[in-house]
Design brief:
Number of helices: 9
Strand content: 5-15%
CATH topology of the largest domain: Rossmann fold
Shape: globular
Largest sheet: 6 strands, parallel
Strand order of the largest sheet: 5-4-1-6-7-8
CATH class of the largest domain: Alpha Beta
Helix content: 40-55%
Radius of gyration: 16 Å
CATH architecture of the largest domain: 3-Layer(aba) Sandwich
Number of strands: 8
CATH superfamily of the largest domain: HAD superfamily/HAD-like
Length: about 210
């Protein structure tokens, strides 16, 4: 059976409320108007640096290094106030784990925040490998980011599950199948579409 590699934000968890809260704190401290949750949804997926750049650009501004550092400090210190696991995800992980599939996470979220979130939500035990956006020189959509997860799991074949075009591009770069999750923040197209988490086990079984 193939390993299964998951994206994190927008795929396993809804982290947007916490991200929005901390991002708006940085914006308002810099004298800019806050962003809506919907606006921030469209900015998530390419890592913290790009997120801050997009937020400031939406207000006609350019962030300085201190703004990036401020967001990283605010979010990294307390990323799990309003973040929740999507309904139906835990049963999916339990099914895949019971099948004996190696499971991993490939996320552009910084590694420290990723670890804090996984521990706080009691998700860490499901995953044999977790590679954040600052854990390698590469980030999705670069397939080398995904390849680092496979190497840590000591596998060569996997299915990528994510809610963003970056996830699907990373998978395609390694000639691996991708399942696009319609409940997340982004847009994309893979070998299969999952409209709800409950559909994932059957789709994964079909893909191998």
């Amino acid at each position: 059976m193939r390993a299964v590699i998951f994206d994190l934000d927008g795929t396993l968890i809804d982290a947007a409320p916490d991200i929005t809260l901390k991002l708006n704190q940085v914006l308002t401290e810099a004298g800019h108007l806050a962003l809506s949750l919907v606006e921030v949804h469209g900015m998530i997926g390419d890592g913290a640096k790009v997120l801050v750049e997009r937020a400031f650009a939406a207000r006609g501004a350019t962030p300085e290094l201190l703004h990036h550092a401020r967001f990283m400090a605010l979010y990294g210190d307390n990323p799990v106030n309003h973040t929740v696991i999507y309904e139906g995800i835990i049963p999916v992980l339990e099914i895949l784990q019971a099948q004996g599939r190696p499971l991993g996470i490939c996320t552009n979220k910084p590694m420290h925040a990723t670890r804090v979130v996984l521990d706080a939500l009691n998700l860490t035990h499901f995953f044999g490998a977790v590679v954040g956006g600052d854990a390698t020189p590469y980030r999705k959509p670069d397939p080398r980011h995904l390849a680092a997860v496979l190497a840590e799991l000591e596998v060569t074949d996997a299915i990528m599950v994510g809610d963003h075009a970056n996830d699907m591009k990373a998978a395609a770069g390694l000639k691996l199948p991708g399942i696009f999750c319609a409940w997340g923040y982004g847009q994309g197209q893979g070998e299969a579409l999952a409209k709800t988490p409950a559909e994932l086990p059957d789709i994964i079984t079909r893909l191998g």
